[in-house]
Amino acid sequence: MAEVRTAQGKLYFLVVIDRISKFVFVEMHEKVARSTAADFLRHLVAAVPYKIYTVLTDNGTHFTSPGYTASAAPLIKAAIEVRERFGAHAFEYACLTGPTRRSLFF
User: What residue stretches are annotated with the Integrase catalytic domain (predicted)?
Assistant: First the structure.
């Protein structure tokens, strides 16, 4: 995610680059919330004609909860299986319920 200043104000760019095909997917937003990254992932999955296996992200708050050093997917999956209520980061949940797995990049 990159912040760009324009004459009209700030814009936030969310960018994905497929490391194999070099395909680039970009969305621009005037405001960014934690759910924006999850929505971006869902839009990406709908836009590409192939399955996404892994998403590499930094440890930013738009992608994971502060203090996490690994994916919370196993905890979320366990809670879903026993129908237990849980709180989850929107991006983590989107990765778990979509066709992707996630790796943190430090």
Answer: 4-69
What global pTM score does this model have? 0.62
pLDDT tens figures, 18-42 = 888 888 999 999 988 878 888 888 8
Domain of 34, in residue numbers: 2-104
Report the number of distinct structural domains present in the chain: 1
